[in-house]
Design brief:
The chain is an alpha/beta fold and 494 residues long. Helices cover 45% and strands 20% of the residues. The protein has helices spanning 3-11, 28-39, 61-65, 91-94, 99-118, 122-133, 143-172, 177-208, 213-216, 234-249, 297-306, 324-332, 345-362, 401-418, 433-442, 474-484, and strands at 16-22, 45-48, 51-57, 73-80, 219-227, 252-253, 260-267, 270-276, 314-317, 337-342, 368-372, 387-391, 425-430, 447-457, 460-469. Keywords: Methyltransferase, RNA-binding, Transferase, tRNA processing.
Length: 494
Amino acid sequence: MDLHKLVSTAQSDEKQITIEATVVTGFEDVVVEECQEKFGKDLLLMKSIGRVFFNIDLKDIEKVKELRGIDNILFIIATFENFGFSNKGTEEDSGQKDESDLLKDKLKDVATIQNKVLEIDWKKYMEIWKQITNYNGVLYPSIEQFNKYNDILRHKKSIRNEINIKKESSCETEPQVNNVQIEKGDLQNQELKEIDINSMCSSQNQKTNFTNPEENLLKFRVTCNRVGKHTVTSMESERAFGGKLNDTYFWLVDLDDYDIDINLQIRYNEAYVGLPVTQTSLHRRNIVEFNITTLKPTIAYNMVRLASPIPGDVFLDPMCGGGTIPVECSLSYPHTFFVCGDINEKLVLKTQANVLHNSGNLNRELKVSPLVCNVRQLCFKPACVDGIVTDLPFGKRVGSKSNNFLLYRLFLIEIGKIVRPQIGRAILLTSDRKHLIQALHITSALWKCRKQIKINMSGMKSFVFILNRTADLFDYAIHGLKEKHKGKPFPPRK
């Protein structure tokens, strides 16, 4: 099912909406499985790169917010199978045209974008958005309200910009005493002007019964993501789309402090428009103590889900960093136990802080036990752990790829000893795919790679390896490996 049919199906039923959930590229199948688990196997859905679309009843919107593997949530209000661009967004259609023809096509495309704004039933969908987000401001101000508060908002922005510029210039250089006094005087004057503006707002507030009038009127911006070759750029598309909304409904334009970020997605000659359900990304949760390699909770959850936890399972993350993976596992699967550790004692303390923070929020103790450990020599009994879920050193911010060459081999041998044969599994994340594959080849008697998932971590190409522990006992398997490399150092160093 394509997106247009999916949205049309939802729009034919007043109680349904189409949700767009963004996800880390590569985890789409994991999120589809989570959605079907939450809403049933009969859920109408489709997936795209980094996105999953599905139809739900409007009353189930809170359940969508409970999904743990997704980053952002939007609901689709319109789709256009044939947007009407002059060159349809492809290289073949662009051809060789002179400047006058290109300008005509550009003006035509700008007009097309503006006309598409009028084809959307904004009043219907803004009421749904208001219901979902509990927005309490004014959706449709009068022209008098718009002019009054738009001038105030613009004036306050200009004053703030001037103050910021003066502060930056004063920080860059060390002026003489007289100049400092002059700058301070200027800043005080600007601050007084801002106070005057605030007093204007308060006086107008008494007339309109708004606490902060310029904030009670809807403030918006438009974000356009575009694929293909078009006569208009993404910024020009945003300006045309947002300008028409501004002229039609008198919404205030604010690119920084906005109430709603309207999403316009253009792909060649197709497009769709979405409204946000969440103000910020859902990956901003649970963690209060960070380090330079802190993992996103959404990535951590998807990795834990790949391990297929069942009640009573014991998991280990011997390189836990700030503890994102154990915290997500304990929150999502409360009947599992998680032991985590790190060689850096400061990071273990950060993990403890994150565990205590989430325990306090839930009023229950998370089943997470942080400790200091060394992955080269893990102090656990043989076959005592059901699974390993960890974020390996990439060799970029921490360590180096030359160190990974030996570290990965030692690590796979150590966890092969403590993970239960046949039923044990390991979910490993790394960008150093080459050295992990080499390590798996050497430790093939202990581990079998079931699947590799390529993901995109903020532009960095990384891989999630899903490993299964072989049925061989550790002593038997390690003896075979040593015989295989007889007369050579084991594990091999080159």
